[in-house]
Amino acid sequence: MAESIPGASAARGIAGVNAVVVGLLGAALFDPIFISAVTEPADLAIGIVGF
User: Fold this and answer.
1) How far is CA 10 from CA 1, 5, 6, 31, 42, in A?
2) Is the dihedral of CA 45, 48, 49, 51 positive or negative?
3) How many CA atoms lie less than 13 Å away from 9 in the CB half-sphere?
4) Mind listing the pLDDT tens digit for each residue in 1-51?
5) Cα end-to-end span (Å), the chain
6) Rounded distance, CA 25 to CA 39, Å?
7) DSSP 39
8) Which of 34, 16, 15 is nearest to 26 (CA)?
9) 25 contacts: CB under 8 Å, gap ≥ 6
10) pTM of structure
11) Residue 38: which residues within 8 A CB-CB, separation 6 or more?
């Protein structure tokens, strides 16, 4: 059996928390900014090209 690396489970936990925070921030910015800024298909195309 392979021995586990010390701190590996903590690193995975921190990576998971980081993913949750990024998701929450993305959701918080999506509603007020994206919905009010993208009003027609041309706006969406500019956003996709710029991304």
Assistant:
1) 21, 10, 9, 32, 45
2) positive
3) 3
4) 455 677 788 899 999 999 999 999 988 887 787 788 888 999 889 988 987
5) 45
6) 22
7) -
8) 34
9) none
10) 0.55
11) 44, 47
Query: Which pair of structure tokens corresponds to residue 50?
Result: 């710029």
Phi, psi dihedral angles at 21 (to 5 degrees): -65, -45
- What does each C-alpha distance from 3 to 6, 7, 9, 11, 15 come to in angstroms? 9, 12, 13, 16, 21
Element (H, E) at 37: helix 35-37
Residue with the two structure tokens 């918080």: 28
Tokens of 34: 């994206």
